Please model this.
Amino acid sequence: MLSTYQYPKYDYVQPPEQKSGETRRHPVVVVGAGPVGLAAAIDLAQSGVPVLLLDDDDTVSLGSRGVCYAKRTLEVLDRLGVGNACIDKGVSWNVGRTFFEGQEVYHFDLLPQPDHKRPGMINLQQYYLEEFEVRRARELPNLELRFRHKVVDVAPDGQGATLQVETPDGVYTLETDWLVVADGARSPIRRMMKLDIDGKVFKDRFLIADVVMKADFPHERWFWFDPPFHRGQSVLLHRQADQVYRIDFQLGWQADPEEEKKPENVIPRIQAMLGDDRPFELEWVSVYTFQCRRMHKLRHGRVLFVGDAAHQVSPFGARGANSGIQDADNLAWKLSLVIGGQAPEALLDSYCEERGFAADENLMNSTRSTDFITPKSKTSLMFRNAVLTLAKDHAFARALVNSGRLSVPACLSASRLNTPDSDPFEGSMQPGAAMDDAPMQEDGQACWLLDRVGGRFMALVCVSDPTALDAATLNAFHALSAGAIPVEVVLVSPGPGRAPEGLRVFRDSAGRFAERYDSQPGTVYLLRPDQHVAARWRNFELDTVRAALARASATLHS
Model:
């Protein structure tokens, strides 16, 4: 057990299927109550889909495990109702520093722009995130959580899957129309279905030591190459909640994991690093190996894989949990539309394509980071050290330093759901991009753009005067909101003006929306439920927006 955290104990309840002996069918079953499975279940439940979530344990994850949660993930967690709890408990940071042989050679700022609600990153032990998600899940009446329910067999068919589930009271059977698999890197369900996961295991090992201590270190990420206290290897330091510090020590492939985890071997490493008589306590110790692997297909009929069950990357870059939560964000709205009969099953193929692309991007970045951190030859080591030496004084070398390219949202610019630009635009908010945040006002109250969008299709229409819209335009807006897949139209205006009846107005009083979205009067943005841009134009035309909506929901040719 940990000295800084009291593990919750979730009650086991005998399922009604076992009491009655009947086999019940559920619209969606999610397996795995880690950060990703919980995110998927909450997102689906918030959209009105009944969800059953199964987990074989009765508490949250042991040890801190995932630590860094990126700005985009925090924005998703905001929409799921747990963002504030994470921010309040976590350690926010934007600056990272890289050292070579004890001297700083490079630093970066993840959030150089002003006026964003969330920081570039927070550090928060994974067990806190899971606890906050469980608390939120229990608030949703159409989300049932079952702890100590272990799936021991899966039989997929064209209409869903039949599961055999083991409990303290024995085994029972349930059926589901859709199965979302979030049961982790070793995924028992993936093995049951005899599905491959391809990639590479890197021959290096790292020691994780969570240390409780009082220190005035700034809220920053520190990474050392070849430091005086751990020669020839690398070290990473992060501050977490509760005065817990995460330290990663590179060990080399020949290290014995069981020996290295013993306190008598861990403590001298930490003492050498701290360089003083600072008291500390070991909170949690583990040894891990880099892996960069993914499933070839994330969808197998009505079985969908998310998170570590679908792909695994090295921890440097914080691309594991962040990517998994964004898998859930991508999948949930699509599955909700399919279950509601508003979109064809073909929409789910775009989940595989979009998150497959994101997985490949993460694997590429993770592999490059690993190659830089752990050079495989003397020549690679000489190159790495030359880059670090030059980075202090030369910008071109800083671009080559790679202590883990940190998680950013994938820009899905090649997605089949996008409508390509037909008008010229500047900036990064192209179709497929995750939305930038911006400070706004609504009904005289300050707010954030991303807090007011998401969970549904929306069209942001930029106008100079909301009161000057003609009746035909207003009728077109209302027609969009009354469609089979409703699109809420919201006006974006730089100044005051009364909102037309039935419409909302966001005031871009600081001009950040205009700046980040290259907007001017007439500009229209069609937004997906996951806060990605689907299309943009310089003028509003009803049929054009409807065609883009059909494309974004895969209903264009269905």
